[in-house]
Specification:
Layout lengths: L2 H21 L7 H20 L18 H20 L11 E2 L4 E2 L2 H28 L1
Antiparallel strand pairs: 1-2
Length: about 140
C-alpha cells in the first residue's frame, strides 16, 4: 500500500467513525442536523466516486470506495432509527455500552444495540462488497 492509498483509506475510515458517532449522539436527534450530515456524507461519497481510479486499486478492493462509507453508515443509522421509532414510538438510546440507559431510565433491547453497531459494520464491509460486485459485472 503506497502513501496515497494509505491516506485515502484512513480518511475514509476516520470520517465513517466520526459521522456515526455524531449521528448517534443526542444532539443529532434533530432533523436539520441529520440532513446536513447526510448531505455532507453524500458529498464525501461523490468525491470517492470521482477519485476512484486504478491508482487507488488494491488487490481486493479500491481504497476510494471507503469514502462512500460515511454516507453508508449515516444512511443505515437513519434508516434503522426510523424503523425503531415506528416500532417503539421512542428514540433509540444513545447510551452505547450498557444494557441500561441511566439518562432515559430504561433497559436497552437488541434493536438499540443493533442501531449502534450495524451502521459501523455495514459501512466498513459494504465498500469491499461493492468492489466484488463491480468486478463480477465487468
Amino acid at each position: 500500500m503506497n502513501e496515497e492509498q494509505n491516506k485515502i483509506l484512513i480518511i475514509g475510515l476516520i470520517l465513517t467513525v466520526i459521522s456515526i458517532m455524531l449521528i448517534s449522539s443526542k444532539r443529532f436527534r434533530n432533523k436539520k442536523r441529520n440532513m446536513a450530515l447526510l448531505i455532507i456524507t453524500i458529498l464525501i461519497g461523490i468525491a470517492g466516486i470521482t477519485v476512484r481510479t486504478k491508482e487507488f486499486q488494491m488487490e481486493n478492493f479500491n481504497v476510494a470506495d471507503f469514502l462512500l462509507s460515511p454516507f453508508i453508515g449515516v444512511f443505515t443509522f437513519l434508516f434503522l432509527r426510523k424503523r425503531y421509532y415506528l416500532k417503539y414510538k421512542t428514540e433509540p438510546t444513545f447510551y452505547w455500552f450498557s444494557w441500561y440507559d441511566p439518562i432515559e431510565k430504561r433497559k436497552q433491547n437488541w434493536f438499540d444495540v443493533a442501531i449502534n453497531v450495524l451502521p459501523i459494520l455495514i459501512a466498513v464491509l459494504l465498500p469491499v462488497l461493492i468492489y466484488y460486485i463491480l468486478e463480477l459485472l465487468s
